[in-house]
Amino acid sequence: MPAVFVLIWSTGFIVAKFGLPYAPPLTFLVLRYSFSIACFLLWIRFSRARWPRGRQQWLHLAVTGVLMHAGYLGGVWVAVKAGMGSGLAALVVGLQPVITALWLSWAGSPGASAPGVAPQVQVTARQWAGLVLGLGGLLLVVARKFGTGSEVTVLTLGATVFALICITVGTLYQKHFVQPTDVRTANAIQLAAALLVTLPFSFMETEAIVWNTEFIGAMAWSVLALTLGGSSLLYLLIQRGAATAVTSLLYLVPPTTAVMAWVLFGESITLATVAGTALTALGVSLVVRPAKPQAA
């Protein structure tokens, strides 16, 4: 499951590159959410999957949907539409494992502390070193590409950082508040919330959709593989594993995406890109690596 998830998730950045020349980003996502909801509702109808009980769980699922679909995907797709390369977008949001691990080290795992007891601060020197390496690797790649007319601008970098914050907060929120729920009904609720939030912003876009083979193929892959497959796998992985263990998988996404973008779009893989990606991956591995148990 983890290996399949990484491969599917990596294609999300590639699909954005394929589909966005023919549609504005938020309009594309509105269609993606709508088609995905229809597929999930059919799946729920024929499988008789159970819906969550209680308004509170519906609310928690809606919040995660806004964060992990509307916020995360919206940020990434706006950045790619504005000119950021697929590999670089994946590298920026690939810092999620670092932020997640540091937050959990400081605040503790959900439910680990007794009510009213402050969690123990556990950020180690190794984790701080990993954070510095991760940020250094990202800056190494981003700094040389920053400027007007480049793929790194205030808009593209701001959009990807916004996406990074949304996917990080959404993962932590889901792990803490969302109870085990059928993945099909959970996804339907999350996507409906994302659709309601994204739809008003899509009305501001004026670019027309070009219905051609590339656009239809990108939309089909987005719905069937990424949403029904990738999002469902992510939901299951978060429910079944620790947040740090799940997000640690995401540091494999940037190099996988970079190779795909190089093969499909000819996006350059320079020495600085390789060095920056390696530093980021090393930093993430230092942060998420479990501490060695102390001898009794």
Could you describe the 3D structure shown?
The protein is mainly alpha-helical and 296 residues long. It has one domain. The protein is 73% helix and 0% strand. It has 12 helices and no strands. Helix 2 crosses helix 9, helix 3 packs across helix 8 and helix 5 runs parallel beside helix 12. The relative contact order is 0.22. About 4% of the residues have low confidence.
- Structurally, the number of domains stands at 1
Work out the radius of gyration: 19 Å
- Give the mean pLDDT: 81
Instruction: Return the string of H and E elements.
Output: HHHHHHHHHHHH
The fraction of residues in strands falls at under 5%
**Considering DSSP H and I runs of 4 or more, what fraction of the residues is helical?**
over 70%
Question: Count of helices?
Answer: 12
Detail the poorly predicted runs.
110-121
Main pleated sheet = none
How many E-type strands?
A: 0
Secondary structural class: mainly alpha
Shape: globular
From the N-terminal CA to the C-terminal CA, the straight-line distance is 35 Å
Give me a quick take on this structure:
By secondary structure, the chain is mainly α.
Set out the fold topology:
Blueprint: H1 2-19, H2 25-47, H3 55-81, H4 86-93, H5 96-107, H6 125-143, H7 154-177, H8 183-202, H9 213-240, H10 243-247, H11 253-265, H12 271-288
Helix pairs in contact: 1-4, 1-9, 1-11, 2-8, 2-9, 3-7, 3-8, 4-11, 5-6, 5-7, 5-12, 6-12
